[in-house]
Hints:
The complex is a heterodimer of chains A (about 120) and B (about 375).
Chain A: E1 2-5, E2 10-15, E3 18-23, H1 25-31, E4 34-38, E5 45-46, E6 51-57, E7 61-65, E8 70-75, H2 78-81, H3 85-88, E9 97-101, H4 113-120
Antiparallel strand pairs in A: 1-2, 2-3, 3-9, 4-6, 5-8, 6-7, 8-9
Chain B: H1 16-21, E1 25-29, E2 32-37, H2 41-51, E3 53-57, E4 62-68, H3 73-80, E5 96-102, E6 108-116, E7 121-125, H4 130-141, E8 145-149, E9 153-159, H5 163-168, E10 182-187, E11 190-195, E12 204-210, H6 211-222, E13 227-230, H7 232-241, H8 283-292, E14 296-303, E15 314-316, E16 324-334, E17 339-347, E18 356-361, E19 364-371
Parallel strand pairs in B: 3-13
Antiparallel strand pairs in B: 1-2, 3-9, 4-7, 4-8, 5-6, 6-7, 9-12, 10-11, 11-12, 14-17, 14-19, 15-16, 15-18, 16-17, 18-19
Helix pairs in contact in B: 2-7
Amino acid sequence: MTTLYTSDHEWLRIEGDVATIGVTDYAQSQLGDVVFVELPKVGRSLKKAEAAAVVESVKAASDVYAPISGEVLEVNDALADEPALVNSDAAGKAWFFKIKIADKSELGGLMDEAAYKQHTA
Amino acid sequence: MLARDDNSPLKTTPLHALHVSSGGKMVPFAGYDMPVQFASGVLREHLHTREAAGLFDVSHMGQIALRPKSGKLEDAALALERLVPQDILSVASGRQRYAQFTNEAGGILDDLMVANFGSHLFLVVNAACKAGDEAHLRAGLSETCVIEPLPERALLALQGPKAESVLARLCAEAHSMRFMDAGPRRVDGIDCFVSRSGYTGEDGFEISVPAEQAERLAKTLLANSDVLPIGLGARDSLRLEAGLCLYGHDIDTATTPVEGALEWSIQKSRRKGGVRAGGFPGADRILGQFEQSAPRRRVGLRPEGRAPVREGAPLFADASSSEQIGAVTSGGFGPSLNAPLAMGYLPTPQAATGGTVYAELRGQRLPLRVAAMPFVANTYKR
């Protein structure tokens, strides 16, 4: 299992040809208190860099972009009832959605943990 | 919010260093570098203000003394009545009233507070409008009044159910003040102007304090365990729950006080048939709207579900029609309401409480109920 990061502060946990996607702890600290999360529909085919989800704080709405292309396999329904999970456990329980990786070569442009740490330093 | 000239450096308030050292997340607002939130975050700051007390720095707002050249306060009051549709003459000494500067078309140039300090009037105006307001006052009232901006004063707001007990430790008279009482008071030995008012829907006070004493007073107030520093984020969600207008968003030069649902702020004496009816810019249009009703009206909106509907969202009469009937002017999430909430303008026939309209949000139509305001009941000590 590998965890990769985007410059937009999303994480991807890669298991075989499935990627679980969420936002980083740094992202949640910048967003502030999350009050609403809108997730993509299961079955939707996402293209890399397309707006896939919306996360809203008291103050503002932010798009979450698909870091890679693929079909949405599963979404985290717990976020509808408890959006504050994004603040309390961004890297864990607050995963957003899982996609079937369409093109593994797209992973090449992503950062590993050390590079991401440097990105947010 | 007015656009900022990006070449000009941000201004700071006398509490800027305190905000930075208290962990304030600073953002540009109306030309000032202001805290949008502190470490506890918008949600906790909002709820803490409703449960205990919050301290806000509103020193970016304009404070102006209006002194009658004749020495008679009524001359200043009558002069100001030429610029606002409110009855200023009947504001008793030690009292304050909400008002608007109007233009010839009946639109709103700014909204403000006017207090009678006995010898002069004391005005508090919006930060983004203060230069324009000063020029407007000089152009309109210079013959009768000395217009004296007070940039050397800071302005703090202490809001919430514990505000009275917190302030009373430094100013015993806090107990005896009623909502919209205003005047000079000594607070912790400092000569201040204190009003029992605010912008949160909560009981509370606004304290005008000399700039050089502001940090000491703020630190003394924050030393009380009931008080947290509050940023602009929670200030906005609190005023939205209270149904209060944000100038430049919910009211502006294109909206009249009647369209803005502010008829309550225009006293009978200035309406048709009143003892000093009219005589302010845009009177014909504004007073006409009392009789013929305005074409559109500011309303409260409660989106169904949990998704916030924000400023600019277009409004429609039903789920499919292509004709836009209005727009959201302020919207977000209400932490005390624990639900999304918004304000916007609708054609008067569709503005009745209980009706349903639709907002377009990310390509979908979302139903919103037209709701009475305030969304959260106010707790003023009348």
